[in-house]
TrEMBL record:
Metal-binding in keyword set: yes
Record-annotated active site: E185
Statement: the UniProt record of this protein carries the keyword Kinase: no
GO cellular component: cytoplasm
Catalytic activity: (6R)-5,10-methylene-5,6,7,8-tetrahydrofolate + 3-methyl-2-oxobutanoate + H2O = 2-dehydropantoate + (6S)-5,6,7,8-tetrahydrofolate
E.C. designation(s): 2.1.2.11
InterPro entries in UniProt: Pantoate_hydroxy_MeTrfase (IPR003700), Pyrv/PenolPyrv_kinase-like_dom (IPR015813), Pyrv_kinase-like_dom_sf (IPR040442)
Protein name per UniProt: 3-methyl-2-oxobutanoate hydroxymethyltransferase
EC category name: transferase
Keywords: Cytoplasm, Magnesium, Metal-binding, Methyltransferase, Pantothenate biosynthesis, Transferase
Known cofactor(s): Mg(2+)
UniProt: Mg(2+) binding residues: D47, D86, E118
């Protein structure tokens, strides 16, 4: 393990020390390298690559092979951050035994440090089995995009008493199953705060308010590359605009013949050309 690699023990210790965790997604080596350099604690190779990279509307069709392909590129480029990969829908739903063999394959082939599994109580046995096999697991409760049909769409969860109780039970079950951290997605901040107080593992919020132990966002939203504006996020750059400007300038110079110039050209002895 590289010397500066963040460990799951350090991640857990940050909760005890009251230090915030900063988590961001990345899906390829270029961005993984930059995100790692910027000092985030954890990089998630999220199945949100369905939307950001593959142009799909939902995360459900993403395959294990696609996750392995992207996670391998990320681990090559991130020597410092803990790298976690999403187990896609269908890879862990057939019970603990098959889930373990898929998680083992992902772990061996990608070099990630942990896997993420969406699902609360219904995934507790699966999470326990994967952890027992020696693979750290990050949980994910609240809004779980893989279960969008069951949840009635991508909307804030747990606003009513019974729903809030079930999400608290989910969070406890995932922590008791041995997860080292827990994503809380799209929850009222009061519920996320209560879960953060009641579970012993770090909570990482996305649309779950400021009282979580850490925050996670989708890289493309942070950089202004996703073209969407969401209540729970902020945009720290406008790379879409910068990219269009740069490409348009390149195109203009190609069309007018000013690129490439002599400075961007390779040279050889003219006398050789004359002999040809
Ligand atoms: O797939 C993903 O990017 C995620 C985060 C948004 C939590 O699950």
């Amino acid at each position: 393990m590289p010397e500066n690699k963040i460990t799951i023990q350090q991640v857990r210790a940050k909760k005890e020390a009251g230090e915030k965790l900063c988590v961001l997604t990345a899906y390829d080596c270029t961005f993984a390298q930059l995100v790692d350099r910027a000092g985030v604690d954890i990089i998630l190779v999220g199945d949100s690559l369905a939307n950001t990279v593959l142009g799909l509307e939902s995360t459900v069709p993403v395959t294990l092979e696609q996750m392995i392909h992207h996670a391998t590129a990320v681990t090559r480029a991130a020597p410092n951050a803990l790298v976690v990969v999403d187990m896609p829908f269908g890879s862990v739903q057939e019970g603990p035994q098959l889930a373990v063999s898929r998680a083992v394959r992902v772990f061996k082939e990608t070099g990630v440090d942990a896997v993420k599994i969406e699902g609360g109580r219904r995934m507790a046995k699966v999470i326990a089995a994967v952890v027992e096999a020696g693979i750290p697991v990050m949980g994910h409760v609240g809004l779980m995009p893989q279960y969008r049909s069951m949840l009635g769409g991508l909307k804030v969860q747990g606003k009513e008493l019974e729903a809030a109780r079930l999400i608290l039970d989910d969070a406890r079950a995932v922590a008791e199953a041995g997860s080292f951290a827990l994503v809380l997605e799209a929850l009222p901040r009061q519920l996320a705060r209560l879960i953060t107080e009641r579970v012993p593992i770090p909570t990482i919020g996305i649309g779950a308010g400021p009282e979580c132990d850490g925050q996670i966002l989708v890289l493309h939203d942070v950089l202004g590359l996703s073209g969407r504006s969401l209540k729970f996020t902020r945009q720290w750059a406008d790379l879409a605009e910068e990219t269009v400007k740069a490409v348009a300038a390149y195109r203009k110079e190609v069309l007018e013949g000013s690129f490439p110039g002599d400075k961007e050209s390779f040279h050889m002895d003219e006398s050789i050309i004359e002999k040809l």
